[in-house]
Design brief:
The chain is an alpha/beta fold and 303 residues long. The chain has a single domain, classed as 3-Layer(aba) Sandwich (Rossmann fold), CATH 3.40.50. 39% of the residues lie in helices and 16% in strands. Strands 1, 2, 3, 4, 5, 6, 7 and 8 form an eight-stranded mixed β-sheet that branches. The protein is globular, with a radius of gyration of 19 Å. It starts with 13 loop residues before the first helix and ends with a strand.
């Protein structure tokens, strides 16, 4: 079992958060909102969901919330095995969504280390996680490139792409790398974290993009020791077996709702089964470690 931190006890549990999203969804559907936007909630062949839609955001969280919170917790824990955090850690989360990676970091970081977290996303997601006492959390609704361009200096310890590198074109990543190169980084040690998608279509593309950023950091005169630990690939195992934060029993009601969504869609009930979401009914939560894929790179300035 992973140790849990006291500061983080002030934070909503991930299972309560998922149950809260299920309640929100139920209320929206009761008020007549449709599930049709969820047709776009797929990641095959480079498809991108319409994250603006608040019903889709709820369904996304029911489907992926537990798995991603778990993956980011593991990813940050792995980073902390290699570094000793000081009193403050500055994190920039690029494509932060609802900031679930902040939740994960708080769960593994020692209480006496405070987080300065900057979330960046083009979409202003509902129900973002809020700061624990002693931490600061802010949000900038901006494109990643424009955000980095607007920073006078790049001062963070950690730059994380939590399932967002997938959504950037290769040339956008190159442009972001150019910005890192032209601005330079303030810290002697900087960590780049990437959570990538395990499907075959995305994986190769994602790794090419993370390599591209890696190259720019090297051009900056920084070195990264690559070890077997730098790339993590999940194993076949249900996630709640490894960490009590993620007890599936506590979210059974929410998952029941997810499984029954097709029956709650007005179009479906009306017999007009034209909605792909209803037909394909991909309404099961991601609950296995085997989908985890992430990279953790620590770069140090060469003296
Ligand atoms: C798969 S979601 C991940 C959200 C969140 N990090 C999570 O783990 O649930 C990808 C996020 O990246 C954001 N994104 C994609 N391209 C972006 C860009 N160029 N600039 C800023 N955000 C971007 C999307 O809006 C979306 O919120």
């Amino acid at each position: 079992m992973m140790p849990q931190r006291k500061e983080a006890d002030n934070m909503i549990t991930i299972t309560d958060y998922i149950n809260m999203k299920a309640e929100n969804l139920k209320n929206k559907l009761a008020a007549g909102e449709l599930l049709c936007a969820c047709q776009s909630l797929r990641f095959d062949q480079g498809n991108l969901p319409d994250y603006e839609n608040s019903v889709l955001q709820d369904v996304y969280t029911l489907r992926y919330g537990l798995a991603y919170a778990h993956e980011y917790k593991r990813m940050y824990a792995r980073l902390l095995e290699k570094m000793t955090p000081g009193r403050e850690l500055e994190v920039v989360s690029l494509g932060c969504g609802n900031m679930v990676d902040y939740w994960s970091l708080r769960r593994v970081l020692p209480d006496d280390c405070h987080i300065r977290y900057h979330g960046v996303d083009t979409i202003d997601w509902n129900d973002k996680f809020t700061a624990c006492p002693g931490d600061t959390v802010d949000f900038t609704q901006q494109d990643i490139y424009n955000y980095i361009d607007s920073c006078e200096k790049l001062t963070a310890d950690i730059y994380i792409f939590p399932k967002s590198i997938i959504e950037l074109e290769y040339d956008e990543v190159q442009n972001i790398g150019q910005l890192f190169l032209s601005k330079g980084v303030e810290k002697n040690e900087v960590h780049l974290l990437f959570s990538v998608r395990e499907n075959e279509y995305s994986l190769k593309r994602d790794i090419a993009k993370t390599r591209c950023l890696y190259g720019f950091m090297e051009d900056l005169g920084m070195e990264c020791e690559l070890t077997a630990d730098s790339y993590y690939c999940g194993i076949e195992k249900v996630i709640d077996k490894s960490d009590s934060d993620f007890s599936i029993n506590r979210v059974q009601g929410a998952y029941e709702l997810l499984r029954n969504l097709s029956g709650m869609c007005e179009r479906y009930n009306n017999g007009c089964c034209s909605c792909c979401f209803c037909k394909e009914n991909r309404n099961y939560p991601m609950l296995n470690n085997k989908y985890m894929r992430y990279q953790v790179f620590t770069f140090r300035k060469v003296a």
